[in-house]
């Protein structure tokens, strides 16, 4: 499986209209700003995120609604071996949901389905993707 980003922070896939550096559409519900590590919401509110939270939300948003398994997130976001036994993904998703709900209580950003986690709101991004680590 290809990694979605390399050590320089560049996506390891063909760029699309929503990629870092592209201008987000005006109707975007949320915008991840990699340069200042902020999540800009549908109102004037802004939430500061960690680099890991940014990469996690970006990876989910880049899947365009496809459910992503815990094993895939461990591999692609955390760079853990898929056989690793940990609750890291569930814990980070839980904390990130709480953090987002504290600033944007009216919107659900991450949903859980039978195949894993998926983005539940429109999320675009701008800036340079934070590097792992």
Protein described:
- The structure is a single chain.
- The protein is α+β, with helices and mostly antiparallel strands.
- α1 (51-62) crosses α2.
- It has a 4-stranded mixed sheet, with helices on one face. The protein has a two-stranded antiparallel sheet with strand order 4-5.
- It has helices spanning 51-62, 70-78, 88-103, and strands spanning 30-33, 38-40, 46-48, 110-113, 116-119, 123-126.
- The radius of gyration is 14 Å and the shape is globular.
- The relative contact order is 0.27.
- It contains 3 helices and 6 strands.
- A hairpin with a 5-residue loop joins β2 and β3.
SSE layout and pairings?
Layout: E1 30-33, E2 38-40, E3 46-48, H1 51-62, H2 70-78, H3 88-103, E4 110-113, E5 116-119, E6 123-126
Parallel strand pairs: 1-6
Antiparallel strand pairs: 1-2, 2-3, 4-5
Helix pairs in contact: 1-2
Strand content: 15-25%
- Alpha carbon gap, first and last residue: 20 Å
Number of separate strands = 6
Which segments are poorly predicted (pLDDT under 50) over 5 or more consecutive residues? 1-28
Radius of gyration, in angstroms, nearest whole number: 14 Å
Oligomer: single chain
Silhouette: globular
Task: Give me some keywords for this one.
two-stranded antiparallel sheet; about 130 residues; globular; 3 helices; 6 strands; disordered N terminus
Short characterization:
26% of the residues are buried.
